[in-house]
């Protein structure tokens, strides 16, 4: 890990790690700015545990921070968990890249892999299926393994994969004779399983363009192709519950004489009920997650019990939380009044204020440039760092050489990092 030892030798850093090891929380570190944050968190991640959650105020900061951290600890150790793109009133297909990123993080965490997960605070608001459900629907194949082909095909359909004659994109699978092709959302290339009767004879990655094999694998995990997973029994139960809620909404709207709103709402929701009764997945099914699962979680529930959280610029996170809460409330009220949704469809997000309270209950480190933090975060430890940013050199190498010489004369250790 590049240059990490420079941070680890700092007295304040050693004290922070020691207090974290004692189980202390609310540890407030200040004096760290810009790309120094990635350097600092990268050093901290190696001491804070197997899995670390880094929370930022927005998606842009999460992306920038993860890219910087990937330089220091390697891209295989850090991942972004983006905010959900599903909103209560949307029926359009979600961004496949966003879904793939979220599924990859969910898989890594439930399998106990070492990861630093960087997430904007908005990503923590989404209600999610329990981690044990995701673990149940991760298919594991190994060369020499005996499988039931019928059960495997049925499970792939339940996991959200589309059966086709020949796969052309992610989220599809195809069976031709003794060859099963699967294109997981979380992999760059599709997989080809060659079967000898009911035994997995070989596993290969292949190019979807020319069908040629690329890599030979011994074993592989295949994640679901969507976040909300349900079987036929769960779907029919959800259809019944939604129908009951729709009936209650009908009574209240007709009592108020709002027949046009009722007509618009009933047409849309009855189509969704019919879709659930078939047991098949449809795009808007994720809006009914509360009818599918009695217990709903956040991404925090996917981490190991003793994980640590780093909140980057907590005051900015607090502002983002307030804006998100206001926007969700106003959006929900407007759409409910227009007859665009049921009350349960607006419940796809946790209360933002509950989320920050839950973060505070674990091991949390606050990281800020300025030595001030809102009392809501209840800081219990204070750690001052004196990081300084370089003077802009505007591409002039002679100025860089002069600055390095000056620092060396003052007995600084100098580490020069290059992006290329």
How would you describe the shape?
Answer: globular
Strand order of the largest sheet: 3-4-2-13-14-1-15
* Spans where pLDDT lies below 50 across 5 or more residues: none
Strand coverage percent: 15-25%
Oligomer: single chain
By secondary-structure content and strand pairing, the structural class works out as alpha/beta
The separation of the N and C termini measures 17 Å
How much helix is in the residues? 40-55%
User: Could you describe the largest sheet, including whether it forms a barrel?
Assistant: 7 strands, parallel
Overall strand count: 15
Kindly state the mean pLDDT as a whole number?
89
Give the H and E element order.
Answer: HHEHEHEHEHEHEEEEEEEHHHEHHEEH
Return Rg in Å: 25 Å
Tally of separate helices: 13
């Amino acid at each position: 890990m590049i240059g990490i030892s420079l941070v680890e030798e700092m007295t304040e850093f050693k004290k922070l790690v020691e207090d974290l090891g004692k189980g202390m929380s609310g540890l407030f570190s200040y004096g760290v700015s810009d790309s120094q944050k990635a350097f600092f968190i990268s050093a901290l991640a190696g001491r804070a545990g197997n899995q670390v959650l880094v929370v930022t105020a927005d998606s842009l900061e999460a992306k920038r921070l993860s890219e910087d951290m990937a330089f220091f600890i390697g891209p295989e150790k850090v991942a972004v968990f983006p905010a959900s793109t599903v909103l209560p009133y949307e029926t359009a297909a979600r961004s496949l890249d966003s879904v793939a990123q979220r599924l990859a993080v969910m898989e890594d965490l439930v399998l106990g892999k070492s990861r630093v997960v960087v997430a904007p605070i908005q990503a923590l608001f989404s209600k999610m299926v329990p981690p044990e459900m995701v673990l149940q629907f991760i298919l594991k194949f190994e060369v020499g393994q005996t499988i039931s082909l019928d059960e495997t095909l049925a499970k792939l359909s339940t996991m959200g994969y589309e059966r086709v004659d020949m796969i052309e994109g992610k989220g599809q699978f195809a069976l031709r004779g003794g060859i099963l092709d699967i294109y997981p959302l979380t992999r760059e290339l599709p997989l080809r399983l060659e079967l000898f009767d009911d035994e997995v004879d070989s596993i290969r990655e292949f190019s979807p363009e020319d069908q040629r094999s690329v890599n030979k694998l011994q074993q592989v995990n295949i994640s679901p192709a969507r976040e909300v997973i349900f079987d036929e029994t769960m779907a029919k139960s959800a259809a019944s519950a939604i129908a009951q809620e729709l009936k209650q909404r009908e009574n209240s709207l007709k009592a108020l004489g709002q027949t046009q709103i009722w007509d618009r709402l009933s047409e849309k929701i009855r189509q969704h009920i019919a879709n659930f009764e078939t047991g098949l997945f449809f795009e808007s099914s994720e809006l009914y997650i509360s009818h599918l699962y009695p217990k709903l979680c956040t991404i925090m529930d996917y981490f190991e019990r003793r994980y640590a959280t780093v909140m980057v610029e907590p005051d900015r996170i607090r502002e983002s939380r307030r804006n998100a809460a206001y926007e969700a409330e106003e959006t929900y009220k407007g759409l409910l009044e227009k007859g665009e949704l049921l009350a349960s469809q607006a419940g796809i997000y946790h209360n933002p204020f509950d989320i920050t309270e839950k973060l505070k209950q674990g091991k949390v480190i606050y990281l800020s440039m300025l030595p001030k933090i809102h009392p809501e975060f209840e800081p219990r430890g204070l750690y001052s760092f004196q990081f300084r940013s370089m003077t802009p050199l505007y591409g002039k190498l002679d100025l860089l050489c002069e600055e390095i010489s000056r620092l060396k004369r003052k007995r600084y250790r100098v580490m020069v990092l290059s992006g290329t």
